[in-house]
Amino acid sequence: MRNDILGGATTFVAMAYIIVVNPAILKAAGLPTGASTVATIVVAAAGSILMGLYAKRPIAVAPYMGENAFIAYGLAALGITWQQRLGSVFVSGVLFLIITVIGLRGWLAKSISQSLKYSFAAGIGLFLAFIGLTETGIVESGTGVPVKIGNLHNPQVLLAIGGFIVMMALMRLRVRGAILIGIAVTAIAGIFLGFGHAPRALFALPFTGDYSLAPIALQLDIRGVLRLSFLPILLTLFLMSFLDTLGTLVGVGAAGGMLDAKGNFPEIEKPMTVDAISCCISGLLGTSTSGAYIESAVGIREGARTGVAAITTGLLFALSLFFIPLVEPLQQLRFAYGPALIAVGALMLDAVRKIDFDDLTELVPAFATIAMMVFTYNIANGLTAGLVLYPLMKLLAGKPREISGGSVVLAALCGIYYIFGLPH
């Protein structure tokens, strides 16, 4: 019990940065920061506690990095309202739940090659890093070139670079909560230099005033997303969520010795069901797609082994509802939270080492996935391009036996994205 409580607290510290970063990203979609912060915390608290009670695993839940960027930035060019974006999150959550219950979610996940799965993670990591670089001004749009290096004489740009270095140094020293500490240190330095303000209060009652959920809760537009043009959006959220969950469960399971002799996660349907329910809650309350968090591995290293750890993490998130004024200044400082996006992106890039570079039928779809995500500034383009190319490359290389039924189904669905959807 002691190890689980300590591990759950450690996991909370490691992933608490999401309280700052998620609302800051979703602000670009038009969601009010105060309400979005409360929604982020409530989803993390409810999802983590549910994971502990039902799945009985030491795995915390919160809004995903990557999915929030897709909701805020990836859909910006389509002119979609934030109500429709929340509707997409809810509908995709319902779809997750249905296919999880009937066992289809696991079948589709197994049909995707390891190289493609890892390319998804690497591509999303670079996408997040690119957002962080542009948000902080380290990279900016240029004249005659798509992007160029930013103004390195700007103090805020220098603060962002320093913040990233601090985070990486703390991670190297295995300091718990390295990203959150890096955000706080950078913000304090910026405030002393006159680029922000200190917290105006320590405590505040949630669900009242600026922290009321009323502006976004139950404001989702479900009817507006139930049409053909929204299929690529739902497909993208579906793919990102179930791949994130699958990768997280396998990674965390390996760290905690929870995998069976064949490397499979026992009773994987339970945590996947929690993931699906969390997605539905996210859409209803007003935040982005949620699911299992890889930072749970930090708590597992501290001895967490049962659902008590996830419950502990959830209760700490619930407690943080009363301390939102402490994090409010951080959400206004791009030079403070931007480096966190770059840091998370750097950590996700580790997945590229597991791509099979010796087999072109594996490398080409993986490369297309990463390149299209980053260079078109759209996660959907990368996911769909890779899934369409995979069976095509296998067929052209004379390897039809390596093409599974699930990969054909996914390729066909992704083809709809380019034929009937709104690629951009």
Please, could you describe this protein's structure?
The protein is an all-alpha fold and 424 residues long. The protein has one domain. Helices cover 63% and strands 3% of the residues. The strands form two sheets. Strands 1-4 form a two-stranded antiparallel sheet. The protein has a two-stranded antiparallel ribbon with strand order 2-3. Helix 1 crosses helix 13, helix 2 crosses helix 3 and helix 3 packs antiparallel against helix 11. The chain is globular and about 65 Å long. The termini are far apart.
Q: Secondary structure elements and their pairing?
A:
Layout: H1 2-15, H2 18-26, H3 33-55, E1 61-63, H4 67-74, H5 82-101, H6 104-110, H7 114-136, E2 139-141, E3 147-149, H8 155-172, H9 178-192, H10 231-255, H11 269-285, E4 290-292, H12 296-301, H13 307-320, H14 324-327, H15 334-348, H16 360-375, H17 379-396, H18 405-419
Antiparallel strand pairs: 1-4, 2-3
Write a compact overview of the structure shown.
This protein has helices at residues 2-15, 18-26, 33-55, 67-74, 82-101, 104-110, 114-136, 155-172, 178-192, 231-255, 269-285, 296-301, 307-320, 324-327, 334-348, 360-375, 379-396, 405-419, and strands at residues 61-63, 139-141, 147-149, 290-292. With 424 residues, the chain is mostly helical. It has one domain.
